[in-house]
TrEMBL record:
This is DNA repair protein RadA. A motif (RadA KNRFG motif) lies at residues 254-258. Belongs to the RecA family. RadA subfamily. It comes from the Bacteria. The middle region has homology to RecA with ATPase motifs including the RadA KNRFG motif, while the C-terminus is homologous to Lon protease. Keywords: ATP-binding, DNA damage, DNA repair, DNA-binding, Hydrolase, Metal-binding, Nucleotide-binding, Stress response, Zinc, Zinc-finger. InterPro entries: AAA+_ATPase, DNA_repair_RadA, P-loop_NTPase, RecA_ATP-bd, Ribosomal_Su5_D2-typ_SF, Ribsml_uS5_D2-typ_fold_subgr, Rubredoxin_2. DNA-dependent ATPase involved in processing of recombination intermediates, plays a role in repairing DNA breaks. Stimulates the branch migration of RecA-mediated strand transfer reactions, allowing the 3' invading strand to extend heteroduplex DNA faster. Binds ssDNA in the presence of ADP but not other nucleotides, has ATPase activity that is stimulated by ssDNA and various branched DNA structures, but inhibited by SSB. Does not have RecA's homology-searching function. Plays a role in repairing double-strand DNA breaks, probably involving stabilizing or processing branched DNA or blocked replication forks. It comes from Rhodothalassium salexigens DSM 2132. Residues 353-459 are annotated as: Lon-protease-like. ATP binds at residues 96-103.
Amino acid sequence: MAKAKSHYVCQSCGSVYRRWAGRCTDCGAWNSIVEEAPPAEAAQPKGLGVGRGTTLKLVGLADDGRIDPRLETGLPELDRAVGGGFVPGSAVLIGGDPGIGKSTLLLQALAGLAQAGRRAVYISGEEAEAQVQRRAGRLGLADAEVHLATATSLRDILTTLDDGPAPHILVIDSIQTLYADTLDSAPGTVAQVRACAQALIGFAKRRGTVVLLVGHVTKDGQIAGPRVLEHMVDTVLYFEGERGHPFRILRSVKNRYGGTDEIGVFEMTGLGLAQVGNPSEMFLSDRSGDVSGSAVFAGVEGTRPVLVEIQALVAPTQAANPRRTVVGWDSGRLAMVLAVLDARCGLGLAGADVYLNVAGGLKIAEPAADLAVAAALVSSLTDRPVPPETVLFGEISLSGDIRPVAQADARLKEAGKLGFTRAYLPARTKAGQDAGPVRAHGLDGVADLVALFGAGETD
């Protein structure tokens, strides 16, 4: 029998090559291709042969009462992000920067489930048991009935879990530290991560256990390992936050049992992660309303309306290539807004340095922030503050028109709760904009917005 040849696998995207190369042609990563030995093949025929398989039991779509209810952790912000609680038998992948608080969040969630009578198991491949116990004591969770172990062998973990009663929830911290002894590659490689995740997901479906897999992230903020890992699990969560801010955002980017782009907001304190019930009030707590270059954007994250401050600074420069620095927003979208303001309104922003920041560490992705960004830029350029107690939202097109966005009523209602009395929004927004004390002002294009700062405020 011919000896199986080793192959080369990209550790970023999982592409397979016959020989080593310095750069992956699929994902463009450099020095990510590593030699791996082929997995041992079982002694079985290549085809199905003439044998019969096991007859599957077919069921209907109606819920006959056998579906278990969701597991609520006692942390409403976490439960909101996953769609109302964890679904039994699901696999959840959570990623985030080192030290952002992933282990702290999961330990608090396990303690909440344990206090509700659920069997919770925490397996760490990175920390010793004493380290996890010390963290639990610091968080005031030492009395929680959470079963703890330190292991990196997939075989040992599955053997331990199969010997006793199936846990309701299992945390693996982290998936990159586990290894399957059937493979010769090192822990963290594409083959190991894929094999270990597949075995744990199979355990979750077979025993009805919620499996939470902690994943490392790359320098770009993406979960390390093969991209197929995110396709294998049911839910993908990202734990975000800036180093200089105590606030943390738990964002759902994939959820087979709920909506995507839902967020949960936490604040890192000395006693762990505290939940933030009203994130809009938190993001606007330090805002000064009489400063130019500041505008309040009424956004929507998932199903939750969130108000956040957008700060802009336009400064003259003598450099040939003016700087464009963006934190919390898409730099490409900023370039488009600047181009529209220059082409349609003649503001001359192309020769100035532009700095844009979303206060509080929140990352905004929806185009509805265009109008608030434009207002902050024009306010900084003219040194005139945005009218007080004002929110803005709307999408700017390349023609300079302001296009309507979804969920306008929810945005206005949230603004009214926080004491805002005026809103600038697209003129073509459907009727019903006025929510309580908020008075809506429609704008047809960016020229109308610039007129508010250049020719005096219009009511």
